[in-house]
Specification:
Number of strands: 0
Order of helices and strands: HHHHH
Largest sheet: none
Helix content: 55-70%
Radius of gyration: 17 Å
Distance between the termini: 9 Å
Oligomer: single chain
Number of helices: 5
Strand content: under 5%
Amino acid sequence: MNIYSDIDTKATAKNVDHFLRKQLPHIMLRCGRSITDLSSPKLSLAPVSTSMRTDRQETMIINAVELENVVQAVHNSILACSDISKIILMDIYIHQYTVDRTLMDLPYERSQYFHKLKPKSLVEFADYYDYWQSKCKVNEEDKLDLHIYKD
């Protein structure tokens, strides 16, 4: 894979959908957050503090900080997306609205939502997520390329 590799849009959209539906809620819980925290225009990253630290507690704090970096990268990625993509991502994955409820927020037909808008939103998220993982200092071993490339 190089920077000019062709992206399989359908497979990438499916991969991002899995990440946002299955992995992200688990990540949010592991750092003591609710998925709806991502709907805030400004995500508060309050530091974790403890008066007495054991090795296990220190490990938990370090893991929580690493998870917070991932959460911040997701948050920034959603906010960087176009307005239509942001609505789709927030409505479906954060607020967990139905497609019919989301379509009320969009000036498009149902067929356009499934064939064009949602896949475009998911690929756009993947593009921004690549960028924001580095900016939010996600550890190299924790970085995730959500793109699926054509052979």
